[in-house]
Structure formats: C-alpha cells, structure tokens
Amino acid sequence: MSAAPRRLDASMTLLREVMERPLDPGYAAAAADPRPRTRRRTALTLALSVLAGVGFTVAVSSIRVPQRESQAVSRELREEIERRTEAVQAQEQSNAALAAANSRAQQDLLGTRGAALSRQVRELGALAGEVAVTGKGLTVTLDDAQGRDEVGGDPRADTGYDEGVVLDADLQVVVNGLWSAGAEAISINGERLTALSAIRSAGEAILVDFRPLVPPYVVSVIGDPAGLQTGFADGDAGPYVQSLRDNNGIRVDIAESGSLTLPGAGQFVLRQAEPVEESPGTQESTDSGGHT
Q1: Would the pTM of this model clear 0.90, i.e. be above it?
Q2: Nearest partner of 175 among 221, 224, 243, judged by Cα
Q3: CB count in 10 Å sphere of residue 143
Q4: Are 245 and 251 in contact (CB under 8 A)?
Q5: Counting C-beta atoms within 10 Å of the first and last residue's C-beta, which end of the chain has fewer, N or C?
Q6: CA distance 94 to 92
Q7: Residues 156, 167: contact at Cβ < 8 Å?
Q8: What is the dihedral of CA 87, 75, 200, 172, to 10 degrees?
Q9: 3-state SS record for the chain
C-alpha cells in the first residue's frame, strides 16, 4: 500500500494558516459569544480611556516645555555675553584715556617744534579712523518693515532671505554709496568704520567688526550734506535704497545734521602692509619726469 502524496505547500504551514484562517480562533469565539455589557465594565472602560488621555496629555506637555537645563545654559550664556560686553567697553574707555594721555605727553615732550608733527598725527588719525571726529553731515536710518503684507518685489530675491528685513548687503551698498558721494567719516550705530572694517551677517544678526548690531541701523556720515545727498542719489545706492523702500517696505530716513560726533575706532596695527621706502634716485627720477 503506497503512502498518501505530500502536499506541495507542506513546508509553508504558517503561511497556509494565515491565508486560510486570517482571524484568530479566539476572536471568532468571542464574536460568536459576546459578553453582556455591564455598568461596571463600561465604567472601567471609561476610566481607562480617561487615564490614557491624561497620560498622553502629560507626556506631550512635558515634551513641549523647555527643559530647565537648557534654560539655565541659555541664561548663563546671556550673562557671559553681558559680562564680556561690559569688559570690552571698559577696555575701550581705558584705551581712549591712555591714547589721550599719550597725545598730551607727546605734545609736552615735543614742545613748540612738535606742534606741527602732533597736528599731522591727529589728522592722519582722523583719516584712518583711529580718533574721534566731529562735523556736519547726514544720518541715514534703515529699519525693518513694519508689516510684511504690503511688500512687493524684492530686489534681493535671489538671496533667499525674508522680505522686509535689512540685510548686511543693504548696509554695504549704503556705506559704499556714501563713500563714493564724498563721505569723510562713517559710523554705524556708533561703530566707526575704517579701511579694515567688515560688515557681514551671522544668522539673523548684522556684525560690524564682529560686533552685533540691532535695528534701526543709524549710519552717521560726516561731509558736505548737500554734496552727500546729491552724490548718493545719483549713484547706484540711491535707486537701490528707493527700491527697498517702495517694494520691500524697509523704512529709510535721510536727514541733515549740523553737528555729528563719531567715535574713534582705536589704534589698529597693520600686520602685513608696510610703507614703501622711496630711494633718492626714485625721487629725482620722479621730479625730473614731472618737468617734461
């Protein structure tokens, strides 16, 4: 007598069970003989549902609330920034006092013969931006837009930044336009600009010489007020600022000032650039060339 043939899917018992009886026998038995609903069972179900909801709410709330450790770290960082800012300001005041004392000592040592030299040093310091200067000029104030609904086309659309916000590129255009218009000295929110100054951004903050500034940005300029306004309007910066005002909602105000005082940037050192020493032969050649 031969044995019964083996099923082709004999090796796939689990898969066959799933395909033939997808519902567990226990569920089928419970569905066939449902237990009657009692008040006790219903009350227990409601209590468990409420307990699960409360637990879910507490878990979500604990996740959304900032952690105390992160708040403490943030507070410590703010305090550290404030302490270092105060230290830098104190050092700047000390440096300014020492510079003034050195200037007085130089004048005393040089006497009358050194008056011309001292005056030349002060003039060079004003040109370089090391010492404070005063005079008439302009103030150009740029501030972020009040609302974003009324803004239109953005001339800086390719930058990817939000509209209505003053960018470091805007300040660079304004400052370059003022230099081209004949500015003799410029500061932004009290930060004097020199040949080594940089205007850049770090995140959403604008840095001038690595010092963060907040709007409104007040650009103080010393120079001939009428000439500055005319030159600024005729250059590339004038139409650019007008476009920011009209299309981007940025608030711009330009006003004349009869007296401005710009602080000095302090003494800085050139590490690579050195003055060229002219040889006597070069001087004679230059002089002879000028007569021809």
Answers
A1: no
A2: 221
A3: 14
A4: yes
A5: N
A6: 5
A7: yes
A8: -80
A9: CCCCCCCCCCCCHHHHHHHHCCCCHHHHHHHHCCCCCCHHHHHHHHHHHHHHHHHHHHHHHHHHCCCHHHHHHHHHHHHHHHHHHHHHHHHHHHHHHHHHHHHHHHHHHHCCCCHHHHHHHHHHHHHHCCCCEEEEEEEEEEECCCCCCCCCCCCCHHHCCCCCCCCHHHHHHHHHHHHHCCCCEEEECCEECCCCCCEEEECCEEEECCEEECCCEEEEEECCHHHHHHHHHHCCHHHHHHHHHHHCCCEEEEEEEEEEEECCCCCCCCCCCCCCCCCHHHHHHHHHHHHC
**Bridge partners, residue 192, by sequence:** 187
Q: Which are the contacts of 151, defined by CB distance < 8 A and separation ≥ 6?
A: 145, 163, 164, 247, 248, 249
As a whole number of Å, the CA-based R_g of the chain is 38
Q: Determine the Cα–Cα distance for residues 204 and 206; give it in Å rounded to an integer.
A: 7
Among left, alpha and beta (phi > 0; psi -120 to 50; other), residue 3 is beta
Burial of 232 (0-12, 13-18, 19+ CB in 10 A): buried
What's the rounded Cα separation, in Å, for the pair 242 and 144?
14
Instruction: Give residue-wise pLDDT tens across range 178-206.
Output: 999 999 999 999 889 988 888 988 877 88
φ, ψ for residue 101, nearest 5 deg: -65, -40
* Structure confidence at residue 7 as a pLDDT band (50, 70, 90): low
Residue 129's Cβ-side half-sphere holds a number of Cα atoms within 13 Å equal to 18
In angstroms, the CA 169 to CA 198 distance is 11
| Chain segment 37-62, per-residue pLDDT in tens | 777 888 888 888 899 988 888 887 77
Contact 265, 95 (CB under 8 A): no
